[in-house]
Amino acid sequence: MLPGMTRLGLSDTIAAVATAPGSAGVGIVRVSGPRALALADAVFRGRRAPSGTPGGRFLYGQFVLPGGEVLDEGLCLVFRAPHSYTGEDVAELQSHGSPAVLARLLTAVLEGGARAARPGEFTLRAYLGGRMDLTQAEAVLNLVNAQTDTARRQATLGLSGAVSRRVEAVQLAVTRTLSAVQAMLDYPEEGVPDEERHGPLREAERELEALIASGQAGRMATQGARLALIGRPNAGKSSLLNALLGYERSIVTPVAGTTRDYLEAGLELAGLPITLVDTAGLRDTDDVIEAAGVVQARRLAEGADLVLYLEDGSREREAAEALPSNVLTVQTKTDLGAVWHDARALPVSAVTGEGLPELRDAVRDALLHDASRQEVWLGTQRQQDAARRALEHLRASHDLPDDLAGYELEEALNALSELTGRDAQEDVIDGVFRNFCVGK
To answer: CA 195 to CA 17: how far, in whole Å?
Structure first.
C-alpha cells in the first residue's frame, strides 16, 4: 500500500454504480478493495463463489439480499490484484439496468461493509497504485465525456500513455542538460561540449512549444468552440447556419433585420463540438431593439473562438466592419453569381451546398492551427499550465551561471513531474479527480 492511502481511506473496500443513471438492459455495481470478493460472495449465488474463482473469469447466478430474497439474476466478473482497473481485487456485479435493482444491490454491498465510493475514487486508486499517471487519469474523464470522434481519439491516445511518453522524452532531454551543468560545476577543468549542454535543451524546448500549441486544440476537442456568424443584414447568416446544421433552425426572410436577438445551435463540425451563434445584422439603425442586437452581435464576436464574417457575393461589396483577428471572410450566395472576387474570401452557397466542405476544413484549420497535424494534444488546462511553467524555466536557464541554470532546470523537471503526476501535490491530485462521476 502506498504512503497516505490509509489516511485517504483508500484501504477501505468501496462500491458504486458504474453505469449511467436511468433504465438500461444492463447495469453494473463495481466493488474494489481487499474485501471485494468476500462481499461479492455475500450477495451472489452461483456454481462457484467469487472468492474461489481465478481472475479474469465471469460467473452466472443470482443476486440475493441478506434475508435470502432473490433480487435479480446476472453475472459476476472477477478481477484479481494487480490485474484490474484499480490494481486491487475487483468484483463487477452485472444485473438488469433497473434503477431500483441497482440501488438495492448497492445497498446490500454497503450493508456488508463496503464504503460508498467518492467521485473518481476508482481511477484515483488506479493512479495511486501505479496503474496510470495523471495524464492518463484525465484521459479517462475526457473519454467518458467525449462528444465527437476527434475527442474520443485524443482521449484514447492519452489513455494509452502517448502524452506521457512525449513528456518523458522532454524530461530525459532536460535531465541530460542538467547532468552536463552539474558536471561543469563538479569538474570545471574538464569542460563539457556546448552541444552536449544546449542541444538536448533546444530539443526539449521545441517539444514543449509543440505540446503547448496543441493545448487550444485539446480544449476545443473536449469543451467545444464557439463560432459566431456576423455580417450585414441579409448577408446569409441564418441561411448558412441552417445549411451547416442540415435543418431549418433559424428563420430566413428577405426582410432586413429579421434576426434581432442571437440564436445558438450545436453541431459537430470538422470533428469538433461547435456552438454556432447567429447574430443580428450589423448596420446603423434607429430601432432601439435592433440597435441592441447589433451591440450584442459585436460583443459575441469578441468572445467567440472564431468569427465567420459573411458578405453577400451577389451585390457590390460594402466597406468592411472592424473585426477581431480570429476571422474568416465568407462570400455568400455564390449561386446567384459573384459580382466581386477576393482570394481571401471563401465562396459558399447555402442553397446548393457549394463550398461547404471547404468551409468546414477552413474552420478546422483556423481553430486547431498546427495542432491538427500533431498526433497528441494536451487535453486539460492543468497540463497546459504545467508545460508552460516548464518551458519558462528552460528559457530562463539560458545565459545564466551554471549554479543558477541548474536551479531553473530542476524547477523545469518539477513542473514536468507535476504534469504527469509524479511528485504531484495533494491539491493537484484532488483537482484532477473532483470532476469524475462516482462510478469511475
So the answer is: 56
